[in-house]
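A.,

Following up on our hallway conversation. Structure tokens first:
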């Protein structure tokens, strides 16, 4: 494989032939850690998205749509928390 090398001092460009390291499949722990990060990001997004509807519920001005959406988000969050709990056994650092 050719790789372009650019000199930081002169700006000169040269091509070098380099071997790529062999591809390694990610480990089960790496895959679990990536999924945990995705779940954490989604849980944060759900928390942020639900603020307005929760504020309306506390103020007593929530609409049926607010309550329905909160129920949808809570169901999704519960499923994600359950999935995350199972993944922490594979990737205990998370």
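Then the amino acids I'd put at each of the 94 positions:
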């Amino acid at each position: 494989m050719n790789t372009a090398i650019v000199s930081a001092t002169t700006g000169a460009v040269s091509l070098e032939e380099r071997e790529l390291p062999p591809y390694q499949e990610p480990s089960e722990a790496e895959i679990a850690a990536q999924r945990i990060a995705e779940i954490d990001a989604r849980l944060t997004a759900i928390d942020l998205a639900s603020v307005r509807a929760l504020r309306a519920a506390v103020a007593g001005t929530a609409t049926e749509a607010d309550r329905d959406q909160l129920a949808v988000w809570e169901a999704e969050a519960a499923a994600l928390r359950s999935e995350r709990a199972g993944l922490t056994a594979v990737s205990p650092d998370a």
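Helices lie at 28-49, 51-59, 64-88. Curious whether your intuition agrees with the design.

B.
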